[in-house]
Amino acid sequence: MGAPLAGAPLAGAPQAGQPSPASSGTSSPSPSASPGPAGTGFSGIILPDLAVIEPLGISQANLAALGRLTGVRDVLAMDGAAITVHHHTVNVLGVDVQEFRSWTQLSAASDQGLWAGLAAGGFVASPGAQQLLGLRTGARYGLRGRSRVTLTYRGAATFGVGGAELVVSNAVSAQLGLNPSVVALISAPGEAMTSLDSGVRAVLGGGGQLVSLRAPQLPVDTAPAGRPATYLQLFRASAAMYCPGMSWTVLAAIGQIESGFGTNNGPSSAGALGPMQFLPSTWRTWGITAFGETGPPNIMDPYDAVPSAARYLCAAGAGTPAGLARAIFAYNHANWYVSEVLALASEYAQQYG
Q: What does the pLDDT read at residue 347?
């Protein structure tokens, strides 16, 4: 499909105090060895290319076979399950702390205190989960899986798996009763994704879900001068000012999918509103007033909503290519949504450069 015009003027878009007509929106923003010594460093950053998700678990034989595929350099298996924290259901991974550390972004991997705390039996969270759950570093919280465990929160970090909101060590994984080896990260630098995908499917016999973690090459701009007059200018300026390193095309794709650039502002069936379809509860945390608007942040105002979306995505890791897919997943917890946003962003990149 061709990318629709993102250059539509903003003059007719809802401004502060002028809500759009309500209509139905689309969606809302909404493995196993004992950890090494806490002081052990990491040997280098490993970039994941593919995530394999198998709710029934990936056998040791299949993990070994994945490691023998052409082009594969590393495979990391992790435990996982959905658990309850503060009456919220979140996805948690149980990991070998020192191995997993190398699969995260450098900014996280180099945080010695965070990994020492995790190895000592605490837990860490994604930035989005930290906001959702109201977590405070150093405080203790109850995590309920098959059993209830009280742990110390050690801080926020960006992980390598879309939808992973909390991370614990393998020792805690056993206490919570997480499902063993349900996720595997595969690093195969230089291998064509179609070839890697085919090889993995052959090993798993067609089972499991495969999620590409390679981010497309998308244009990154500097902020244009002056107040944006079109959605295209607003997407460019918001990305540059509120999430340096993230392509404006991602905001454009989300803006199209969520509301058709403000033509379908909701409420959605979940209660999401505005051109970027925020839930009011999420808006209270992330909404800002920007680009010369006055008064409190207005969920219906594109001059507030688009930069707020950029802030939300950036906190989830969108400022780096390795974190982009995870950040889009945080915006809407669906793998099809990540694929559609990235595909449409690539079309905008081709059309507008």
A: 81
Q: How far is CA 72 from CA 64, 126, 133, 161, in A?
A: 11, 27, 37, 18
Q: 206: Cβ–Cβ under 8 A, 6 or more apart, which residues?
A: none
CB contact at 8 A, 275 and 303: no
pTM of the model: 0.56
Please give the distance of CA 254 from its chain centroid, rounded to a whole number.
14
Residue appearing with tokens 């291998």: 191
Phi–psi pair at 258, nearest 5 degrees: -75, -40
Of the candidates 162, 172, 167, which has an alpha carbon nearest to the alpha carbon of residue 108?
167
DSSP state, 24?
A: -
Terminal CA-to-CA distance of the chain, rounded, Å?
17
Contact 353, 219 (CB under 8 A): yes
Cβ atoms within 10 Å, residue 188: 24
pLDDT score for 132: 84
| Backbone φ and ψ of 257, nearest 5° | -65, -45
Distance CA 290, CA 307 (A): 7
Confidence of residue 350 (pLDDT cuts 50, 70, 90): confident
Best mean pLDDT range from 25-29, 31-35, 109-113, 193-197: 193-197
Q: Distance between CA atoms of 268 and 112, rounded to whole angstroms?
A: 43
Residue 216 binned pLDDT confidence (cut-offs 50, 70, 90): low
